Amino acid sequence: AADKIRVIPQDFFAELCEQIIQHLNHKIPGVNTAELCQRIQTSGVEINIDDLAKIANILSFLFSTAARNNLSTEELVTTLGSAGSTLPKHALQVIRHVWNEQGKAIAVSEDARNTATVGQFVDIKWKLGVAMSSDTCRSLKYPYVTVTLTVADPSGQITDKSFEMTIPQFKNFFRQFKEMASVLETV
């Protein structure tokens, strides 16, 4: 991971660290590594989404462990340095700065840790389509609904999950959402 961190420019690494801290503080639902990876690649740096996601997971673990152990900035940097860490100097500087500025605000209550194991809903998009024909059937005229859910998993990675439903399935899906909404109104 240290080799991959070396290739990330300092400003992008700082942005990644700040987004992770914000996620741990429950200010944002997750870290959009796909968007950040695309911006890093556009700047001319070769890195893939899987490597960036691994780095984000490592940093998330690092910051949450430091918060759980109430580490000061110096204790965190000393621990990273004494663990035989091969982190580049610019990464240690960014970690020091971000932890010094925002690290103490990380909420590590037991309730927050228990609820974070499920993931978090971020957005929903849908579209109506009609399948006109296929290579095995000349005339389908079959309507369907495509739903895309944007979800932040417990580590903060934002992903899209898509699925298709027939119109009757969608009506059932919609009815269940209406039931949830009415129950939530009573709470």
Number of beta-strand segments: 3
The amount of beta strand, in percent, is 15-25%
Largest sheet: 3 strands, antiparallel
**Spatial shape:** elongated
Distance linking N and C termini: 46 Å
Number of domains: 2
Organism: Lanius ludovicianus
Domain COMM: 120-187
Family: Belongs to the COMM domain-containing protein 6 family.
Protein name: COMM domain-containing protein 6
Kindly describe this structure:
Helix 3 packs across helix 4 and helix 5 (73-82) runs antiparallel to helix 6 (89-102). The chain starts with a helix and ends with a helix. The protein is α+β, with helices and mostly antiparallel strands and 187 residues long. The protein folds into two domains: 2-107, no CATH class; 120-185, Nuclear Transport Factor 2, Chain: A (Roll), CATH 3.10.450. It is built from eight helices and three strands, in the order αααααααβββα. Strand 2 and strand 3 form a beta hairpin. It has a three-stranded antiparallel beta sheet. InterPro entries: COMM, COMMD4/6/7/8. One of its GO terms (molecular function) is NF-kappaB binding. This is COMM domain-containing protein 6. It holds the Pfam family COMM_domain.
